[in-house]
């Protein structure tokens, strides 16, 4: 399982791009995780699924609300990662009004999630393999903080915790 001090696993995540430009076409675009985090401080939070209750009511809105504060303490980007396809993540991002605040990164086949060792088996609930709920602060591709939630909890992966950690690291 991924831990503080580890480099993020190699792989790609997809993002649905709403406006064509900057070398990105309209629709799903693939981003190499290593290249996308190189030279940057990225706050990443992951959750079990788009449009699910806690994720939609608390997790994503908290990061949207705190995005400017995170950037003020040195976070270059905020990513939401979920085992959903880029179309679903794009629709959820529109519904959650994440533009310019949170990048909605799709891990459709759970390859990135499996590589981190942070999977959650929700097969019995009809959802298949998903991601555990967690957050991490990544600097130049290296995990500096990692907050993994206990099953069914939402206590340590929230935006307020990430903001405190990012401010401490900036120090």
UniProtKB/TrEMBL annotation:
Q: Is-annotated flag, keyword Oxidoreductase?
A: yes
InterPro entries, alphabetized: PRX5-like, Redoxin, Thioredoxin-like_sf, Thioredoxin_domain
What is one process in the GO biological process aspect for this record? hydrogen peroxide catabolic process
Sorted alphabetically, the Gene Ontology cellular component annotations on this record are:
cytoplasm
Q: What is its EC number?
A: 1.11.1.27
On the tree of life, the source organism's domain of life is Bacteria
GO MF term list: thioredoxin peroxidase activity
Keywords from UniProt, A to Z, are: Antioxidant, Oxidoreductase, Peroxidase, Redox-active center
Q: Identify which top EC class this enzyme belongs to.
A: oxidoreductase
Q: Which reaction does it catalyse?
A: a hydroperoxide + 2 glutathione = an alcohol + glutathione disulfide + H2O
Kindly name one Pfam family recorded for this protein: Redoxin
| Family to which the UniProt record says this protein belongs | Belongs to the peroxiredoxin family. Prx5 subfamily.
Q: What does this protein do?
A: Thiol-specific peroxidase that catalyzes the reduction of hydrogen peroxide and organic hydroperoxides to water and alcohols, respectively. Plays a role in cell protection against oxidative stress by detoxifying peroxides.
Q: What is this protein called?
A: Glutathione-dependent peroxiredoxin
């Amino acid at each position: 399982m991924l831990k503080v001090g580890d480099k993020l696993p190699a792989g790609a995540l997809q993002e649905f791009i709403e406006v064509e430009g900057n070398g990105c076409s309209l629709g799903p675009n693939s981003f190499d995780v290593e290249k996308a985090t190189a030279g940057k401080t990225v706050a990443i939070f992951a959750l079990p699924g788009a449009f699910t209750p806690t994720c939609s009511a608390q997790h994503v809105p908290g990061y949207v609300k705190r995005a400017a504060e995170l950037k003020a303490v040195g976070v270059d980007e905020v990513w939401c990662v979920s085992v959903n396809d880029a179309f679903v993540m794009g629709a959820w991002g529109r519904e959650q009004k994440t533009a310019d605040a949170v990048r909605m990164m799709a891990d459709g086949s759970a390859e990135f999630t499996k590589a981190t060792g942070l999977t959650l088996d929700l097969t019995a609930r009809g959802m298949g393999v998903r991601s555990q709920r967690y957050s991490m602060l990544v600097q130049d591709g290296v995990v500096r903080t990692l907050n993994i939630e206990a099953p069914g909890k939402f206590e340590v992966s929230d935006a307020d915790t990430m903001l405190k950690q990012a401010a401490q690291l900036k120090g």
